[in-house]
Amino acid sequence: MKPTLLFVAGARALPFSVNMAEAVLAQTAARGIRTIVTTTAPVLAATPSIVAAADEASVVGYTDPRENAEWARRRVAAGERIAAVFALLEMAQVAAAETAAAIGVPGNPPEVIRRIRTKDACRTALAAAGFAQPAVRLCANAADAEDFMRDAPGPWIVKPRDAMGSIGVSLVSSAADLPAALALLPDAGTFLIEEFVPGTEFSIEGIFLDGQPHFLAVTTKEKTSPPLFVETAHAVPADLPEPQREEVEEVVSAALLTLGLRVGAFHVEFWLTPGGVVLGEVHGRLGGDWLYLMLEYAIPGLEVFGLVIDDMLGLPRAPGPPRPTRGAAMRFLTPPPGTLVAVEGWDEVRAHPAVLHAELLISHGAEIPLVHSSRDRAAVIVTGAETSTRAREIAEELALSVRFVTAADGAGPGGSAS
């Protein structure tokens, strides 16, 4: 009987997420491994290509981790040889960890995943271990936040305790800014306030092999101007001096092992400051958007999901992933608000030989929104070239060549991040 990979939650009904899941399934199938996708009925209905690519798809929820764990335990008891459990989605990481623990296959301890998904708990654990961290407080209301602001130097960041995609993240410079910041939060529950870190922000991507972190690339980031921090561009590999990259890898490696992560992929955000590396959020998964595509272009021959699966199953593989030999970039287009009536220059973008992927994220007749989160970006262009610098230049040139024509005045270049 073939070993089975249990793919918890599958993909979100978004092109980049579906594309990632298709890559997971293709790289798994190439290894002769059976796949079962478990997720909710609406997601299965919205992602037919995932259902078609998997050997089996079953309706099993993942917001309650026990549901997936119990389902897997029953399948194993009935004779299914589930040898590995994997999840792409942030919100499915706890369910995957609980399921792996329940059936005794490789995985990160559930308590470790719960800790890194709870942003303040992760910060507290890292700070206690001696890693540089911004001070943070869990708040129930504005008064709690004001107390923190009196004790910690500003400015400050207000953010949800458990969210993604820059939703609800904003900068506050005084108590007068708090009402607007709280209004951006996705719900009225508890939230976080933390010290603002003024350094340049990056992320680092990697996988675990034999329990040790192996690094694929450092990613540069660009974001909208404060008070919001929506990501508008990425490039890999970052152009860092070798000693600085080694310092980053040393700090991140120690942090991951201190937190207790040992299996799968990771995506760790950090700042480079005059005082050194300051760690941001830690994720036990690969970065989203089209980052996996950029990595697999920058490192020819890389099958990032396949390497994770090889490690989980103890399959033969090379000693470790190679370093990037090319560069890739991703540019999000954020045109001014208005009712979209046409997009000029898009066909030329898609035909450009350096374009790895180009996608409009808004349809004609829709309202182009103000950019408050990653959901508000209008289009994405992913490029590949001999270096990340050149890939970024091409992405910027192409973004500026696109014109989003609105009903109001037909003005505004697509590359603007305003």
Automatic annotation (TrEMBL):
Gene3D superfamilies: ATP-grasp fold, B domain. Residues 1-20 form the signal peptide. Keywords: ATP-binding, Ligase, Nucleotide-binding, Signal. The keyword Signal applies. InterPro entries: ATP-dep_AA_Ligase, ATP-grasp, LAL_C2. SUPFAM superfamilies: Glutathione synthetase ATP-binding domain-like (SSF56059). Residues 123-313 form the ATP-grasp domain. The keyword ATP-binding applies. PROSITE patterns: ATP_GRASP. One of its GO terms (molecular function) is ligase activity. Coiled coil: none annotated. It comes from the Bacteria. This is Biotin carboxylase. It comes from Actinomadura citrea.
